[in-house]
Amino acid sequence: MLRVGMLTSGGDCQALNAAMRGVAKGLSSNVDDLEIYGFLDGYKGLIYGNYRLLTSSDFSGILTKGGTILGSSRQPFKLMRTPDENGLDKVEAMKQNYYKLNLDCIVILGGNGTQKTANLLREEGLNVIHLPKTIDNDIFGTDVTFGFQSAINIATDAIDCIHTTAASHNRVFIIEVMGHKVGWLTLYAGLAGGADIILLPEIPYDIKKVVGAIEHRTKAGKGFTILAVAEGAISKEDAKLSKKEYKKKMEKSPYPSVSYEIAAKIGDKLGSEVRVTVPGHTQRGGSPTPYDRVLCTRLGAEGAKAILEKDFGHMIAMVNNEVRRVPLENVAGKLKTVDPNAQIVREAKLTGISFGD
Fold first, then answer.
1. How far apart are CA 180 and CA 182, in angstroms?
2. Which residues are catalytically annotated?
3. H or E element that contains 307
4. Are 286 and 67 in contact (CB under 8 A)?
5. What is the DSSP string of 13-44?
6. pLDDT tens for residues 270-295?
7. pTM over 0.85
8. What is the DSSP letter of 181?
9. Based on the number of CB atoms within 10 Å of its own CB, is 39 exposed (0-12), middle (13-18) or buried (19 or more)?
10. Which residues contact 111 (CB under 8 A, 6 or more apart)?
11. Run of H or E including 119
């Protein structure tokens, strides 16, 4: 009998179900005696023993379904060693529930925080396989995470839709794209959507340069300008502040997000109204793209193979378009950011895109 646990943790994305299906099919096609237990609402289910036995019907028809059939929740890694309000030792509780079900392995799907806890469980002696999920594409050790391409499509579609109204009214528009710490999604969606200015957390902007880029377009006869701005975009002045100082400043800010602050500053300097569009959580929703479905099937199949070979403690990654097993201890806690001097950034600048620097 092979007993495998499964959970999805952190923010949802379009391809979680497809990834779980890949693992389940990879196992069921090679094992006659198999039980898969799904822990509900992320690590919360593993902590409090909230789970259910999954059957083949649970994995049928979910390849194209967004969200997660198991539910999810955010359980900050920094609080995992902190007892809950009733004094429960969360780590010990997770271990006990793992052993209670006599699991051979637990498959954990999630982003950076999820990965750190997965590595913690590995250090505690549990057999773990991690599948890298996040629309931010910021997990170190893999070229791409599932959910990223699906989110690019949605953010790009938002920019495409803004183009027509921006051109019709000769206005400056800002599209705020998800990404607090890294700008991969904004970079790719900005390029795909033909944004004129792209502002990323990794490349602090000078508002004078941003305004200058808009004025340059106006002088060239372009009546409108599109800015793709990451949630975590930051000015050169603010980048000099400590994290504590910057957090305090943002708490006192009259603006709901950095995009509205940028819009106000551009409007003041140009004497014209700047509109802001925030696609928000739509970027996580809907069906996964064909690319993500293929990616998840490949990652899931390799995850199943690792389980069958009893090769645990790995993240299943894509490296140079090949599926690889990367030791969790080598990647947990690391963030993959956009290099300001990366080839893709240089190429974007060659086409006339401004990054405000």
1. 6
2. 136
3. helix 290-308
4. no
5. -TTHHHHHHHHHHHHHTT-SSEEEEEETTTHH
6. 888 899 999 999 999 999 999 999 99
7. yes
8. S
9. buried
10. 10, 11, 132, 133, 134, 136, 138, 139, 145
11. helix 112-123
